[in-house]
Prior knowledge:
The protein is mostly helical. It has helices spanning 4-16, 22-43, 53-68, 72-79, 84-96, 117-121. It has one domain. It starts with a helix and ends in a 37-residue tail after the last helix.
Amino acid sequence: MRDAAIVKTVQDICARDRRYRPECYFFILDALEFTSKLLQKTARTGKERHVGGRELLEGIRHFAIQEFGPMALRVLNTWGLLKTEDIGEIVFNLVETGKLRKTDQDSRLDFATGYDFTEAFAVPFLPTSRAGTAQHPAHRPTTGPTKRKSTPPDPPTA
């Protein structure tokens, strides 16, 4: 269950900035907590530390894949998240309300060109070709609704 104050804040943000669904904000906050815990675990300092934009992007990538698996790209896109710059917009909307803090070094530019969403959220779930590389759906031949045919094994090579 969400804290009533954060729910109200997200409702207020969404009323004035309709680009993103409320779920985006809750997801980003959850991903920030996930990232912060992950970084604390690796640092083993026991103190809370600031999470920078690039670190948050990586945390979001891992968190989305963990939470949504092969549906991650579709879920994020449905909420209005199409690129890493959208994540920066949400983060800074939360900063402007005081729900998140930033340092003097933090900027929306930290989220610019972080990664391609298709590469980050769809490609890890694509089947690999015989060459061992993922095949993008646009590059796969389409066969239509025919029955699957068995193919003979490749002939041995000399």
